[in-house]
Structure formats: C-alpha cells, structure tokens
Amino acid sequence: MTDHRWMGAALALADRGVGRTAPNPNVGCLIVRDGRVVGRGWTQPGGRPHAEAMALAQAGEAAKGATAYVTLEPCAHVSTRGPACTDLLIAARVARIVAAMGDPDPRTNGEGFARARAAGIAVTTGVREAEARAMIAGFLTRRAKSRPFVTLKLATSLDGRIARPDGESRWITGPQARAHTHLERSRHEAILIGRGTLEADAPRLDVRLPGLESRSPRRILLSRTPEPGWETIASPAAIGDLAGVDRLMVEGGAKTASAFLAAGLVDRLLLYRAPILIGDGRAALSDIGLARLSDAHGRWRLTDSRMLGSDRLEVYERG
Questions:
Q1: Among 52, 73, 184, 189, which one carries the catalytic annotation?
Q2: pTM value?
Q3: Residue 273's domain is classified under what CATH number?
Q4: Which domain holds residue 107?
Q5: Which end of the chain has fewer CB atoms surrounding its CB within 10 Å, N or C?
Q6: Annotated binding site for Zn(2+)
Q7: What's the rounded mean pLDDT across residues 43-67?
C-alpha cells in the first residue's frame, strides 16, 4: 500500500474521536512494519491517551524499524497528563514518520518533526493534508478564532418552512433524516437551542442511536435567563467561553439560527429538506443582517449531498 492509502486508514481512526477529545485534537495513528499493521491508535475521550501512545503500546517491540502514519504532527511537549508523543516514537525507534500536517500548537509547531529528524527518523509531511484539516476543524477553529467550530442544522419543507403557523413541527423530515441528525449530535461536544425552542418543544437533545447513547452532547441554552438543568449563555459570542467544546451544533429555532448567521459564527450548514409544501408557516430564518443581495453570493460551498429516505441532505461549508 502507498502512503496515501495508509494515511486514509489513519484518518478513519481519527474519525472515531470526532466530538470527543476536546481540548485535544482527534488524531489517528497507524504503525506499519513490512506491509503489516502492528499498532493502531486514536485520541481517546477527553484527549488522553494520544493516538501515538495507544498505537505504540499495541505495537510493542514491532514498532522498531516501522513507519508511523499520523494525521497530525506528534506533540513535542511534556504534559502533566502524559509524555510527548515525539519522544515515544523516538524511544520506540521507528524508522519513519508520515504525517498529514503540522501542529499549530506553539508548543509543538514543527518541533516534533525537527526532533524526530535529529534522532535519525525520516519524516514525510503533507499526505492528505486537506482531509486531515477537515477532520480536526474544531481544534483548528478554536486555535485560530478562540471559539468552537459551529454547525447549524435546519430541517425545512421545500418552501423553507420549519413549522405550520400554529408551531406544529413534528415531524417535517422522516426517520432516516432524524437518525442522521442523532449521528451528527454524537460528533459534537455540545448542542445549542434558543429559549423559544425550549418552551415550544422541550427537546431532549440526546443521542438515541443504539450503541451511541453515551455520546449525547452537553445542552446549551441561548438565553439571558438561567434555566435549571441547562448551561446558559447570553449571546452567540459567548460560545468562546464554553470550556471543553471545540465542536458546537446549533439546532434552533429561527431566531437563534439567524443570530448565529448574522454574527458570522456558522462554519457549516446541515440542510435537511423534506418533499413537502407547508405554505403559510414559520420561516427557517429571519433577518441575518444582509445589506445587499450580492453579499449573499460566494459565502457557501456545497460539500455533500445525499438522499436520506425521501428527504435530501445538503452540507455546506463557508466559501
């Protein structure tokens, strides 16, 4: 197998930790010797152990002379929570490190690669880097913008309605689309709604997929009034203060969604569209601060589109 294909396997391991590893990035690591996988690892919930430590523990002596495929530059700093992964790889005497990308954390940021090379380990970088960046979008957004990566979920009719005029909204989309929403919830540390949605629907916001119930995210309420059993923030800008949250899902309603869009805080859109017409109902969005129609163009790019039963899912990311 080529480096490209082995890195694909490491990325699949990293995907297991999406929404579970903050404040650390979700990383995957594969130890390969003589064309055979001898160790696998991915960042565990809460950020420790790191992927490399897990993979090396599994590989044992077989790591000597092997190639380590990692989706992010191995950390170069010693923490109270564990050793530096670069030092572990050097001690294991791997022959080569193949990394998808460098680590922007200033405590590492090239030092991991430099230290490995100084120890005689061959280092290759940039293998499937774009995919690796998408994989740790939460970690990168937190470092660059001091806030979580935000996904906005909207479930609408063909004419852009989220409810009938009387507020009835269960259910616009079918069971397959709703199951996909639960899967998305499991990939975020926290989920947020507004006061109106809380009072109208009293949503549980948990994950109800067999085997994934433990991945239910923290529940955040956008409100100036505290609510028992909820974490409350007063404004969209306050998401930066949510400790341990690198991926935030916003589920509703229209006022909350519009507030996040107007503030420029949405990085990804999940648009579930059902093949129904509602007519005179409640719109998915209100004012989002658009001054001119020309300003609406070029902001979003389609990254995925698929059918979920009779509903269509479209995924957009900021252009």
A1: 52
A2: 0.92
A3: 3.40.430.10
A4: 1-138
A5: C
A6: 50, 75, 85
A7: 95
- pLDDT confidence of residue 166: 80
- What is the total count of domains within the chain? 2
Question: What residues contact 181, with CB distance under 8 A and at least 6 apart?
Answer: 153, 155, 270, 272
| Residue 129 is a catalytic residue | no
Q: Is 51 in the same domain as 133?
A: yes
Backbone angles phi, psi at 42, to 5 degrees: -150, 150
3-state secondary structure of 184: helix
CA–CA distance, 23 with 11 (Å, rounded to integer): 19
CATH number at residue 122: 3.40.140.10
Q: 161 and 101 in one domain?
A: no
Together in a domain, 113 and 201: no
pLDDT in tens, 163-176: 888 877 788 899 99
Annotated binding site: 50, 75, 85, 155, 169, 171, 185, 197, 201, 205, 208, 251, 253-259
- Which residues define the annotated binding site for substrate? 185, 205, 208, 251
Q: What is the pLDDT of residues 93-102, one digit of tens each?
A: 999 999 999 9
The predicted-structure confidence for 107-142, as pLDDT tens digits, reads as follows 899 999 999 999 999 999 999 999 999 999 999 999
Measured between alpha carbons, how far is 144 from 130 in angstroms, rounded to an integer?
Answer: 17
